[in-house]
Specification:
Blueprint (H helix, E strand, L loop, with lengths): L2 H12 L3 E3 L12 E3 L4 E3 L7 H16 L6 H18 L6 H20 L18
Parallel strand pairs: 1-3
Antiparallel strand pairs: 2-3
Bound molecules: zinc ion (2 copies).
């Protein structure tokens, strides 16, 4: 059953995402990334797996939640929490190790921000709303 593919296709449609294999992209960044204003997700590898689905949801989360005043660690937090919440909506449990992995990334971005002079901040903690299904 193509459970994940079906959810991915619906997400792409619902949030009007322009998927790009990299041919429309000027950056040589090889990992999956989003262009916020273009609502474009670049170099995402579609596969019928949770990992592929969560990567897509995280990038769409950037497109949907981003505001100009956000610091990098906040962008990563809100994009990831949005992805977790959509997993809940679609009935997908999010493994704790996935949450821990993204939390580490958010914390690293916060530490980097502090090193660069960020003065007002608070640690943002992901809530695994989709854990118990
Ligand atoms: Zn790109
Ligand atoms: Zn991100």
């Amino acid at each position: 059953m193509m459970k994940y593919i079906g959810i991915q296709n619906e997400v792409v449609q619902r949030y009007a995402i322009d998927l790009c294999d990299g041919s429309k992209c000027r950056s040589d960044w090889h990992r999956t990334h989003a262009h916020l204003k273009l609502r474009r997700v670049c170099k995402w590898k579609q596969a019928n797996s949770f990992a592929s689905t969560f990567t897509l949801l995280h990038e769409v989360g950037h497109i949907v939640t981003n505001t100009q005043s956000m610091h990098r660690y906040e962008q990563e937090y809100y994009a990831t929490q949005w992805a977790i919440d959509r997993c809940r909506d679609y009935g997908l449990a999010v493994p704790e190790r996935t949450v821990e992995q993204y939390q580490r990334y958010i914390d690293l971005e916060l530490e980097r921000g502090i090193r660069r002079g960020l003065k007002r901040y608070r640690r943002l903690l992901l809530a695994n709303t989709a854990a118990e299904l």
